[in-house]
Amino acid sequence: MPSLATPWPYPFWIAHRGGGRLAPENTLAAFRVGAAHGYKAFECDVKLSADDVLFLLHDDTLQRTTDGEGIAGERPWAELSQLDAGSGHGAAFAGEPPPTLRALMRAAQANHWALNLEIKPTPGCEHRTGQAVAHAVAREWTRHTPPPLLSSFDVAALRAAQEAAPAQPRALLLDTLWPDWFATALALDCIAVVTHHRWMDATLVQQLHDAGLRALVYTVNDVELAQRLIGRGVDGIITDAIDRLGP
């Protein structure tokens, strides 16, 4: 069981998808914007291409955040790497491509950033994606601390990550408090649970802390809400409002 006696190695404030609302999400440009606002910890989304390259993208499909169309996980990396993931956020970001996880980890280690990698599998690829992310982090993260925190809403993906690299830290993501979520987090040897902020009251914080788990929340963009959550004892806040909250 985790212990709260072990110092929590991750910064409290975590920039959502790299640069919150100020940059095209899940691009290296977004991380540069977040870092320029003083952030040292970043959340982002990782999925697999058709030829098993890990890259950053939130949606199953391409059209919301890039100039491509269709299901991202069905495309080879040679095609995905040519997409424009920046123009939709403004001319200043035109031509910004989706990055590989390898490129992000190299940048993170060079700049001493902490990462929360959300495993975002294409439907049907849950086990393969969780396994691939865990293997990649175990192989390529050479900094001593803190290693990336692997999180997911998808239990199968998180279980695959656990089986592939048991020593890598994990967190269960929750948009609702579904039955058996707590037992699942313990069975997955998670060190944290990350919920939508609406669920994280003082009772839930205490339940997690009593079990040795850390309590994190997403996506908090209101100053007063952030202050209330801090008062409840949360251990981390993920935010889009990187120009108004945190560093």
Q: Specify the number of helices.
A: 8
Give the total of domains.
1
* Class of secondary structure makeup: alpha/beta
Query: Strand-and-helix sequence, N→C?
Result: EHEEHHEHEHEHEHEHE
CATH fold type? TIM Barrel
Helix content: 25-40%
How would a crystallographer describe the biggest sheet?
A: 9 strands, mixed
The main sheet orders its strands as 1-9-8-7-6-5-4-2-3
* CATH architectural group: Alpha-Beta Barrel
Terminal CA distance reads: 32 Å
Query: How large is the radius of gyration?
Result: 17 Å
* Top-tier CATH class: Alpha Beta
Query: What value does the average pLDDT take?
Result: 97
The low-pLDDT segments are none
Question: What is the fourth-level CATH superfamily?
Answer: Phosphatidylinositol (PI) phosphodiesterase
Number of strands: 9
Main attributes of the structure:
nine-stranded mixed sheet; alpha/beta; 247 residues; single chain; 8 helices; TIM Barrel; 9 strands
3D structure, described in words:
30% of the residues lie in helices and 17% in strands. It has 247 residues and is α/β, with parallel strands linked by helices. The chain has helices at residues 28-36, 77-80, 101-111, 126-140, 155-164, 181-187, 202-210, 223-232; strands at residues 13-15, 41-48, 54-56, 114-119, 149-152, 170-174, 192-196, 214-218, 236-239. It has one domain (13-58, 99-239): TIM Barrel (Alpha-Beta Barrel), CATH 3.20.20. Helix 4 packs parallel to helix 5. The protein is globular, with a radius of gyration of 17 Å. The two termini are 32 Å apart. It has a 9-stranded mixed β-sheet.
